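Input sequence (281 aa), recorded before submission:
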Amino acid sequence: AVSIASARAAAISLDIPLYRFLGGISGNRLPVPMMNIINGGCHALSSGLDVQEFMIMPVGAPSFKECLRWCAEVFHALASILKDRGLATSVGDEGGFAPALKSDEEAIETILEAVKKAGYEPGKDFKIAMDAASSEWKSDKEGEYRLPKSGDAFSCEHLISHWESLCKKYPIFSIEDGLDEEDWTGWKEMTRRLGGKLQLVGDDLFVTNPARIARGVEQKLANAVLIKPNQIGTLSETLDTVRLAAGNGYKAVISHRSGETSDTFISDIAVATSAGFLKAG
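Predicted structure, token format:
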């Protein structure tokens, strides 16, 4: 909070935009939003989904303004579909709907239906991103993932195959935390199999921490890092972490955190660092 206040004060005193103060002339790229549209997991206890977040990415939009408009139209189209099916249109902790859907496939297909209803083409105009938050699924049994809502159990190998099959079937661009935060061996295998096809984002794996990112780089784990300023603690460390990721060929996804205020500081960081992606509700 002190870092943010200091940066805002400095930008105001110089009479320049905050993103310009943080990024200088390098702050010249608007991000593609990864907009949280369906919540599951521990962020939506009423939902039947174990995957924590399903997001839409308006990859075909010509500008950020249109990105925002397209996403808003799909969000409201989804609300209409859920209402017609008698499903809840209440929202979860991060701004997405929290309906009682039964599976990953049903959630994805419902989102794609909303994309079409809003007048857009899945795969061309929109792609899907997911945050599995699979560290929540680790059971007491070595190497087992047990989904708390569905009761399904996966080995590491089977869970990687599950993500692989979903990505063959649907226009998925990004999967975050597809394996547990301490499953370093599994992450290496998942990156080997899927890293050339998907954005594999480490959140719980890296926790915006340079030491863990350096270990991931050394072992060739994931290919993108989720950046949460209040996870590492200061703005200086946040910017250092973005530079570390970019310097090693990893994408940076600037992100909110569940339960935060509506402060817009992360949008300035996304532009200042030319991160390319902004994850929000």
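Checked by second reader. The beta strands are 32-39, 53-57, 127-131, 144-146, 153-155, 172-176, 199-202, 224-227, 251-255, 276-280.
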